[in-house]
Design a protein that fits this description.
alpha/beta, five-stranded mixed sheet, elongated
Length: 383
């Protein structure tokens, strides 16, 4: 006879009760294991033991349930490692840096610092910089790497860099440079990007045979450009540089895709406005500094994690975010130079810098990752 749903659920409730009781017993034994490991100076993580356990429970479960049991036990083992680390009262090295930064960072975000931006006058990085600071002294750099270098050398107090666009995706050149340079993120701004077709006065839209702009801007206007039959597209280092090139050219058949500010700065005419493919076209810019600074209201953090090259390591990290109820806003992976098929994972997470879950996360990641690099905690404003 087929049981009704209430009876089946009552049976599951009873089984769940037994599972929780058994889990409590398991963790109590884990606490004794932690005591033994601490007394004998043994690491929390025992990979050979875990591999053998996973193989054993997988065989016990049978073929139909093997994958499900392995998934459950990976989570249990991750919880066990975290619990053992907590019992050791081991502090996170990175979180100690956060505590010191919270004590030493001024309460007011700087208003008139020197700031490095890539490009020339009128660049979107300049617009982002003006949203972040009240009256910045902007020093323009030719490349993104020169922005990092200006901050590292102390030539500029801060640097502003684009990192992600809602249409074209991540600015991968910046992510690759993040692997090679030492810096901290102190604030971010999400800027609404509206592209315009700029040309010299007297040029008509139908006269344009070549368009200059940065690759990201061209990607964001792909549909618009596709409709321009016979028009050549030329990639340059920056949208503002494109506007400058149009101004300085002796031609009346060229145009630039750039900001409205560029039209004002270089005496150009706006032939067509808002030519981006999507109305909700936003670019995120990060503000970097040489030292770690954490200002009031910081509710986002960025981490770079290098994981062992074995199955399940990324899953274990993602499971920790879920277990600690930490929202993952972005995950970016970049290949590690000189290491075949190995990657650095960059996580943008949403959590108050004061949240105890953040310290737990750092402690667990320090135990399980090859390298954990904390890039800063900050707030993001809408420009």
């Amino acid at each position: 006879m087929l049981q009704n749903l209430d009876e089946l659920r009552a049976e599951i409730d009873q089984i769940d009760k037994q599972m929780v009781e058994l889990f409590q017993k398991r963790m109590e034994v884990c606490s004794r294991v932690s005591d033994y490991k601490r007394a004998h100076d043994l690491p929390v993580f025992a990979p050979d033991r875990e591999r053998a356990l996973l193989a054993r429970v997988t065989e016990m479960a049978g073929e139909d349930l093997a994958d499900y049991v392995q998934s459950i036990y990976r989570t249990i083992l991750s919880a066990s490692r975290s619990y053992q680390s907590t019992l050791r009262n081991s502090n996170s090295r990175e979180y100690e840096n956060i505590r010191r930064a919270l004590e030493t960072t001024p309460k007011l975000f700087p208003q008139r610092p020197t700031v490095a931006c890539q490009g020339v006058t009128g660049a979107y990085s300049q617009i982002a910089c003006d949203r972040l600071f009240k009256a910045p002294d902007i020093r323009f750099c030719r490349t993104f790497e020169q922005v990092f270098e200006a901050v590292e050398r102390g030539d500029c107090e801060y640097g502003v860099l684009p990192i992600e666009n809602s249409t074209a995706g991540s600015v991968k050149d910046v992510y690759d440079l993040m692997l090679r340079h030492n810096f901290s993120i102190v604030r971010a701004v999400r800027l609404r990007i509206s592209h315009n077709l700029l040309a010299k006065h007297g040029t008509r839209p139908e006269d344009v045979s070549e368009v200059f702009s940065h690759q990201q801007a061209l990607s964001q206007c792909e549909g618009y450009l596709a409709a321009k039959e016979g028009v050549k597209v030329t990639v340059v280092s920056n949208t503002a540089v494109a506007a400058q090139m149009v101004r300085d050219s002796g031609r009346t058949d060229v145009a630039a895709i750039a900001s409205r500010l560029c039209a004002e700065c270089y005496g150009l005419k706006i032939l067509e406005e808002a030519i981006e493919d999507k109305d909700n076209n936003y670019t995120r810019f990060i503000c970097i500094s040489k030292r770690l600074e954490i200002y009031p209201g910081a509710d986002r953090s960025t981490l770079m994690v290098t994981l062992p090259h074995r199955p399940g390591t990324l899953y274990n990290v993602l499971a920790k975010f879920h277990a600690l109820n930490i929202n993952l806003r972005k995950l970016e992976s970049r290949p590690l130079p000189g290491r075949e098929f190995e990657f650095m994972f960059c996580f943008d997470i949403e959590a108050s810098v004061y949240a105890p879950e953040l310290e737990k996360l750092f402690r667990d990641l320090e135990t399980e990752s090859e390298q954990l690099r904390y890039l800063g905690s900050y707030s993001e404003i809408l420009g």
